């Protein structure tokens, strides 16, 4: 009979690999879970995102109303079983439009933040890694864009091309990418002198590999925090422009143009069901995003690793 094989004992290398598996992200998630406000914000934000994503089946199956369906006999109707949040000035169900409006507002925020992060990361990484003339040219471009105020630029673009979701996103991206680019550049200026980057250069690794494989992953934590907090600012910017009539064009709903019902003094004083719900959704979403962003900032602080 063959001798029974003894169970293998983990070598020191395997033990080290097991310890490395508990990486930065493991400790960051563990710290994040201990932050009650951040976890609460994440739960609330997740619920808001889910109900807006599934707005069509939720409203059609439970309420029976479409996004633009109206009832002429129920104009500015008070909340009831038929219309849980009442109706607007045209007789459309406010709860239905509130959920659809969340789709638009959150989509604008997500697309704008993602685009800003991509553009800012590319420009910031190139400037921070190569330095010298390339850095000076790119940073002067960033200075020029930074000097352009968002609101006048957005109003000008909308006045020329008309209010629409596409034009609003373009205005936000045009003035929003310099912030992430400065952040990434600062991280690259610090990380490019680290030992592991010098070792990669010594082995002949190309610049593209060093940037995307060795430096960029280590520059992501502050960028993720910046993106999270940027979502709140974009939601407020969309709401402000749509409230003024320069954002999302009616009849497409958004939280901002739903809130514009408060322009009417009668609605403002006597019909709170028409403007309180979108205002409350903006408040809850922005507050939840800020809680999550603060939690991520604390969780990703390397000084708190122990």
Describe, in plain words, how this protein is organized in 3D:
With 306 residues, this protein is mainly alpha-helical. The chain contains 14 helices and no strands. Helix 2 crosses helix 14.
Short recap of the structure:
With 306 residues, the protein is mostly helical. It is built from 14 helices and no strands.
Helix percent reads over 70%
Structural class designation: mainly alpha
Radius of gyration (CA) equals 25 Å
| Number of E strands | 0
Percentage of residues in strands? under 5%
Please tally the helical runs, counting DSSP H or I stretches of 4 or more residues.
14
What characterizes the major β-sheet?
none
Overall residue-averaged pLDDT value: 83
Order of SSEs: HHHHHHHHHHHHHH
Q: What is the terminal-to-terminal distance?
A: 51 Å
Comma- or semicolon-separated keywords:
14 helices, 0% strand, 306 residues
Task: Please specify the SSE layout and strand pairing.
Layout: H1 12-21, H2 24-34, H3 36-53, H4 55-62, H5 94-130, H6 132-146, H7 150-161, H8 165-176, H9 178-191, H10 195-202, H11 207-244, H12 255-259, H13 265-270, H14 276-299
Helix pairs in contact: 2-14, 3-5, 3-14, 5-6, 5-8, 5-9, 5-11, 6-9, 7-8, 9-11, 10-11, 11-14
